[in-house]
Design a protein that fits this description.
heterodimer; A: mainly beta; 51% strand; B: 112 residues; six-stranded mixed beta sheet; five-stranded antiparallel beta sheet; 11 strands
Chain lengths: 113, 112
Amino acid sequence: NAGVTQTPKFQVLKTGQSMTLQCAQDMNHEYMSWYRQDPGMGLRLIHYSVGAGITDQGEVPNGYNVSRSTTEDFPLRLLSAAPSQTSVYFCASRLGLATDTQYFGPGTRLTVL
Amino acid sequence: KQEVTQIPAALSVPEGENLVLNCSFTDSAIYNLQWFRQDPGKGLTSLLLIQSSQREQTSGRLNASLDKSSGRSTLYIAASQPGDSATYLCAVSGSGYSTLTFGKGTMLLVSP
């Protein structure tokens, strides 16, 4: 199993550009989520999904869109990038319930100029 | 709103010491608590998961305890090694499909 994979590893955007961060898992996990990690702020939940076709907002959803058309993939879209979205983004997945171990991808380091 | 605090924020110890990392949470109505390890520039790796009905979990040199009523958990690392150097995060969650709430982590440095 590859586990949770994320692409790209690094990305530099200009303000106003759009892009999609890719996340995939091959463990047949129902639950997938996106976090951002900022110095002094810790990990904050952006969006999550409990299954294909079902998504919901986390703590900091503004400026981000998600969709879940398959069990395996959970892309995160930045529609119009802002410098405040400079961060490290982590995708995570777990089998389903909160009592299941959560697995994290290696992260995408995004800089918005 | 659940808040998770980890103390200390950073810790530096010589190799071989036993050490304790602390995690506290404001809402005791949790269903489980997880401890994660994060190496620089990497993602998080789950170390231990304690369900609310459990008091502790052990994996090798790691032992995590949970006191729900007081809103506290500790991660005990025995005979620390330089390879233990990393940031350790704790996270709590409720039942069902609940999301995780993370602390900001303790950055551990073990010197040879």
